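Marked as duplicate of an earlier ticket. Keeping the data here for the record.
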Amino acid sequence: MRRLLPSPRRLLWALLMAMLALILTVPALAQAGEIVSTVNGDPISRAEFHARVQLVRWQYLKELSTLYELTGGNLALVATHTSRLVASLSDPLALADAVLSEMETERLLWQAGEARGLTPTAEDAAAREAAFFSLWTNVPVSELPGNAEAQAFISDWYAGAQAASGLGRDDILTLFATEALRARLYDFVAASVPAEEPAVRSRHILCSFHPGQPDNVAPPTDDEREAARQCIRSAQARLATGEPFADVAAALSDDRGSAAKGGDLGWVLLSYLTEAYANAVRDADLNTIIGPVETEYGLHLIEVLDRRVQQLTEEQYQEAQQGYFELWVDDLRAQATITRADDWDADVPTAPDFSTLDVAVQQAIAQLAGQ
């Protein structure tokens, strides 16, 4: 007999990602009622917004129960993810804000899809639904229709979703259409991503705003900024005497990883560099020290050693496609007219809550919180 839950090690993270994709893509429902937001004139009613929040809360709770089972009750094995779910459920307003933001983005995706003739078919949505429940039940898509246990699980899942949110199966089926739409738009955008990018080899001396914490990007205080400036002046003075760049970097740079290599960062794609650094090295003369250049990390003296156009690895290409798509979605939002009601957050749902979980799951969550 097939398991009705994926095996813990093999499918745990795939299941989590599918669950998150599902709960964050429930599309608009054709309901009348008070408006909480409009997206390019397209309204989102309070009723559908509250239904979505309740569905998300139910799914997060269901995910916690699944994690408990898959880990044999040891939620410490997935502590980071569990803590994020618990924190979201414990802050109803922040969760509601995230849900409404996603609903607004979905409106934009449907508008973009319709404008480009990329809206999904009923078959696309059905395929997404089947793939989702195949992962949940560990039953191949082709065997789902004839598997009684899998069908019972699917019926129970929809019944639970409806009880928690009021959304029926037909309502939630449009969820899978939104997921299919997102995939179509992703392919549309990804097709324009080049398979090669400019890369630069440079070396730098970093005078961090937060010495000892070079990854800290908190805005500097006046004293921290002045200390970074003094560090830069010291580096410039030593370079002016003819001291080799590599020696000054080794002595002064707060980027200790590159400092051990004379400040050399090796070959890096421009898209992987922080924006200010990338802008500075894109057209700088070779073998010429420029700066100080300010980034969120601090002040830099930079020398560009070489530039080239570099073929992306498969992993880099996939990362580039994902990045382009995210920027494309951000641009949709930037160009859209999104207007929220002043009272959009009135009476946001706080149910279902932790009390709906099995006592053992509640205890495991409490134990994790106390560690």
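See parent ticket for discussion. Residues 46-70 form the longest helix (25 residues).
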